[in-house]
Amino acid sequence: xxxxKAFIKPIAGLLAVGLLIYFFPDIFLYFTIAxxxxxxxxxLCELIKKFHIKKFHLGDSLSAVVTMFAMxxxxxxxxxxxxxxxxxxxxxxSKIDTKAIVDYFEQPLKDIYDFxxxxxxxxxxxxxxxxxxxxxxxxVNWDNFxxxxxxxxxxxxxxxxxxxxxxxxxxxxxxxxxxxxxxxxAITPDEQxxxxxxxxxxSRVMLTRYLFGLLSEVLCMMILIxxxxxxxxxxxxxxxAVIGGLMNIIPYLGPLMGCIVxxxxxxxxxxxxxxxxxxxxxxxxxxGVFVAANxxxxxxxxxxxxxxxxxxxxIEIFLVILMAGNIGGVVGMIIAIPSYTLIRIIARQLxxxxxxxx
Length: 358
Known about the structure:
Blueprint: H1 2-23, H2 25-50, E1 52-53, E2 56-57, H3 60-94, H4 98-104, H5 106-118, H6 128-140, H7 142-154, H8 156-175, H9 178-186, H10 193-231, H11 237-247, H12 253-273, H13 279-309, H14 314-350
Antiparallel strand pairs: 1-2
């Protein structure tokens, strides 16, 4: 009977988790985000618990509250920096004079037009200037931004629910770090409890180190890009640096996406202030800064961070990210390294008798 119970216990637990993910993916997402936030806040929470004045010290609940308040201040500071910059870009975009742009580029566009007609790419009756002007107007038309804002407002209620749920879960995970541990132990057969304890401990340590390493990499990339753009006198260097650094969370594709967004912001800034002649030089400068920053990232930051945080060889990481990208796209690439880290930890505990498992 005990053997049957030990066999059914983990299967029932895994089935329950699978059903939760399938029927309530939002709840699973909130819980996952809460786990990540609790990992980031755990060192601070533990430090606050150690602080005391004579016999007075903060308990688990107050330590969790103070930690969450500190995290809230950090996120609020980030938004206070980003939102005015985004608002500035929107205002610049809304003031772009499409007629002036077309007038300035009339001769180059005419040369392109003649080339396209010569090689039968477009028909002679098509007016490329009108077509381009129409496309520009549709891009910078304020009505497009209005529809985006309306769509955002319509989803605000679900965002509020998600934010509240995540905050609620994060608080209790900080207050009682053994919640996740107890959930896994509840579905673990008794004879495997020691191995599960090792898996959970190693996973928490490795993932926490990886998260802090990733944050360090993102922050370093923001600083490198910002300094490079500032040297060249690029407008809106801060917002380009913030976006470029955040995009770096996506391995390999992220830097390219960040560079494209940076170039677009640079072009918009030039179009907004009418410095059309600086579009090409500034574009080349932005691309050069991103290339230089990512060379530093690829050859110095990533090998150092990943080798010390997850103890994996750069070639190993590269292959894992490529395979994850083929399976799950961008999302797969983002979760590739932490997922692979968990798989390695589990394999070491359960398949340690095999030589290729280290």
